[in-house]
Automatic annotation (TrEMBL):
Species the sequence originates in: Sphingopyxis lindanitolerans
Gene encoding the protein: nnrE
Binding positions for K(+) per the UniProt entry: N62, D119, S153
Protein name in UniProt: NAD(P)H-hydrate epimerase
UniProt record, GO biological process: metabolite repair
UniProt remark on cofactor binding: Binds 1 potassium ion per subunit.
Amino acid sequence: MPIPADAPILTSAAMRVAEAACAAAGTSLSELMERAGAAVADTAWRMAAGAPILILCGPGNNGGDGYVAARLLGERGAAVRVAALAPPATDLAKAARAAWTGAVEAIVDGLPPAPLIVDALFGVGLTRPLADDLARRLRGFADKRILAVDVPSGVDADGQHGWEPPLPADVTLALGALKPAHVLLPTARRCGTVLLAPIGIAADRTMCSLPRQAARSPDAGSHKYNRGMLLVRAGPMAGAAALAAAAGLRAGAGYAVLSGADEAPFAAIIAEDGASYAARLDDKRLGAVVIGPGYPASDALGRDVAAAIAAGKPLVLDAAAIDVALPRLDGTPAILTPHEGEFARAFSDLAGNKIERARAAAERVGAVMIYKGADTIIAAPDGRVVAAWPGSPWLATAGTGDVLAGACGAMLASGGDAFDAAVAAVGWHIDAARRIGPGLVADDLIRD
Ligand SMILES: NC(=O)C1=CN([C@@H]2O[C@H](COP(=O)(O)OP(=O)(O)OC[C@H]3O[C@@H](n4cnc5c(N)ncnc54)[C@H](O)[C@@H]3O)[C@@H](O)[C@H]2O)[C@@H](O)CC1
Ligand SMILES: Nc1ncnc2c1ncn2[C@@H]1O[C@H](COP(=O)(O)OP(=O)(O)O)[C@@H](O)[C@H]1O
Ligand SMILES: [K+]
């Protein structure tokens, strides 16, 4: 399901800080609610296309947005009804309720539905799961078009609890910024198409969704070495390392060496005996080393990882190489690419949602983390985060992680910040997968 690219992601606490800063700078909270309600009204107007609309309002400011939207839709001539769970409890919601001159029905069994339901029950203020009765009544509307205001009600916006909403949305209109729940499973898949209403808050950009243009292009000043010389160290399953090396070239490396393999998928890749590995690590032109694809834990892996760390070159560590390297990374610029199982093994003590765990792991290791999965999170030791939801589910097939490791190597080898390199690699990987689509096998990503 689509999500706005390069959009800020704020927790509920950060939203309240941004809201207060806005108020301090002269924009009243009622103006923010008016803008939010206007954005809800516009989206509902387009989704309803003339059909009747039922707006479900909660007691807080999420409900307030619903009352504002009802008033504006009524002024436009839409057939709009309002049903409330409880009287408004905040001053802003009370004022918004008072300005709605129509009837307010109760959310009870038998409440007549409408083709479009606007869910303005709870937003970032939800503190516990919805009551069973309410959840059951909401499920009764599941066959209607659903527009969720900020988040589908019942979802914990911060993504701390994976509470499932009784009424998954077709469209979720995020107010001011995305929230963690829009980009983390299991809730992200309940939000439908996520749209962003920029209501005028100045959102911190430490956490963002994936930028649209992530791939890098060569220019007139490029040559094979400054585009990046990549060394991929093969283990016993040389095919995985070959995929990584080929992906490295496809993703923009100028030169790829596959060490410890007899053959490579492209003639352009230099496949050579592992005996020259140490000499390759010493090559001043070498931009990055990838190690881990197809290389299970063994003494040999330990030696090869240690040599790469000692060489001080930027590293991409995948699979078993992650565990081997962990205690001794020591400031070497690196990208680690664990999937769920590898992350759990290496960072079993970390708690919190996937963003918090990825961040804590990055900070602990002093390296960039690509915590893979359908809701991939990229985290830097300084706290920066990019969330890559929704990716491409066609990537759920063997070997695509090896391809990603190679792409990371390519981006890292061309120089610059390891976090930017990781973001570029994840973007390249997802773009390539989307171009291929149905039937994708990992080899397609390198033939592309
Ligand atoms: N922060 C901002 O910058 C803006 C926020 N706005 C809206 O305000 C919302 C947040 O408003 P609030 O903080 O008032 O919070 P909510 O409206 O999300 O809900 C809070 C209310 O629900 C009650 N509650 C929480 N969990 C419940 C449960 N499980 N069952 C029953 N009652 C429950 C609380 O006691 C409180 O009365 C946002 O999601 C957004 O829709 C917008 O008006 C515009 C600007
Ligand atoms: N359901 C999914 N939706 C989107 N991307 C996925 C999904 N499942 C896996 N991926 C992506 O596919 C890749 C799989 O990597 P990994 O698990 O290491 O596989 P392998 O070791 O077989 O190469 C990762 O980039 C991951 O983010
Ligand atoms: K809502």
